TrEMBL record:
It is found in: Membrane. The chain crosses the membrane at residues 7-28, 40-58, 74-92, 112-131, 152-173. Residues 10-201 form the Cation efflux protein transmembrane domain. The lineage of its organism: Bacteria, Pseudomonadati, Pseudomonadota, Alphaproteobacteria, Rhodobacterales. One of its GO terms (cellular component) is plasma membrane. Keywords: Membrane, Transmembrane, Transmembrane helix, Transport. This is Cation diffusion facilitator family transporter. It is a multi-pass membrane protein. It comes from Yoonia ponticola. InterPro entries: Cation_efflux (IPR002524), Cation_efflux_CTD (IPR027470), Cation_efflux_CTD_sf (IPR036837), Cation_efflux_TM (IPR058533), Cation_efflux_TMD_sf (IPR027469), CDF_Transporter (IPR050291). It comes from the Bacteria.
Length: 295
């Protein structure tokens, strides 16, 4: 399934889940179930944002954007985190009114069944988005999936709280649980924003991936002497890699080009959509520290 189709699927699933959760709130009048429904409105809005970002990110590079449009997905993920925070504020407001005027919950069994049906749908789709998003290196899809998974956890907590409120008759538990839901998704939203901002700030790849890159360069650069000043950054599905390659003074342009092509091919086999830039240098540019010694 393509990234675009997954994003469209998120919109359809979001509307279905929102309808079920809204129905559960209408049946019960539970503030906690209302908080669950409010979070689902964010799901729908961010699913639209993810679709737009993914379509922009898929555009080829042009004169105005020679490195492509891949970072558009990070903006979507940041927006999603911000909207989660807004939802948390709205839930706090509803929880406050529930504390001031606690009311009994109507038809709790039927409402919980409907809400749990929505939770199961969310859980399955969250798993699809996270696994496919990581495979396709889509920050927007992964962020959407993580948000949905957070929604699943809060929905389960809401269900437990509603049951306790009904069994004990302590109706104050209903708004109290809504407030806990708001705290939980507030933490989740801040985490998503932090992760997305790191991508916008040209964060390097992980140490494990960096070690793999060094290993590939060392193994594939036969004919060169060393590589140094290795730098990486990621933008959506693309990983940018650049470094300096030192060759002997009598190496021809053709030979140096062949070495670079071999390294580039191996790095692209290691990382899909890798963009590699290699600056060839003569022997007097050797560095004593921090260099990759060619095998």
């Amino acid at each position: 399934m393509t990234t675009i189709k997954l994003a469209i699927g998120s919109i359809l699933i979001g509307f279905a889940v929102l309808g079920l959760k809204a129905a559960a709130y209408w049946m019960t009048g539970s503030v906690a179930l209302l908080s669950d429904a409010l979070e689902s409105t964010v799901n729908v809005a961010t699913a639209f944002a993810a679709l737009i970002a993914i379509r922009i990110a898929a555009k080829p590079a042009d004169d105005a954007h020679p490195y492509g449009h891949h970072k558009a997905e990070f903006f979507s993920a940041v927006l999603e985190g911000i909207m989660i925070i807004v939802a948390a504020v709205l839930i706090f407001k509803q929880a406050y009114h529930g504390f001031v005027h606690p009311t009994p919950i109507n038809a709790p069994t039927a409402g919980l069944i409907v809400n749990m049906a929505a939770t199961v749908i969310n859980g399955l789709w969250a798993w699809v988005l996270i696994t496919r998003g990581r495979k396709q290196k889509s920050p927007a899809l992964v962020a959407d999936g993580k948000h949905l998974f957070t929604d699943v956890l809060t929905s389960v907590g809401v269900a437990v709280g509603v049951v306790l409120a009904v069994v004990t008759g302590w109706w104050i538990l209903d708004p109290a649980l809504a407030a806990l839901v708001a705290v939980h998704i507030l933490w989740s939203g801040s985490k998503i924003v932090k992760e997305s901002l790191s991508g916008l700030m040209d964060e390097a790849v992980s140490e494990q991936v960096l070690d793999d890159i060094r290993t590939v360069i060392a193994a594939q650069a036969e004919g060169a002497i060393e590589a140094h000043d290795l730098r990486t950054r990621h933008a959506g599905i693309v990983t940018f890699i650049d470094f300096h390659l030192v060759v002997a003074g009598d190496t021809t342009v053709f030979e140096a080009h062949e070495i670079c092509d071999r390294i580039e091919t191996a790095l692209q086999d290691l990382l899909d959509d890798a963009k590699v830039t290699i600056h060839v240098e003569p022997e007097h540019k050797l560095k004593e520290t921090g260099a990759i010694i060619i095998e």
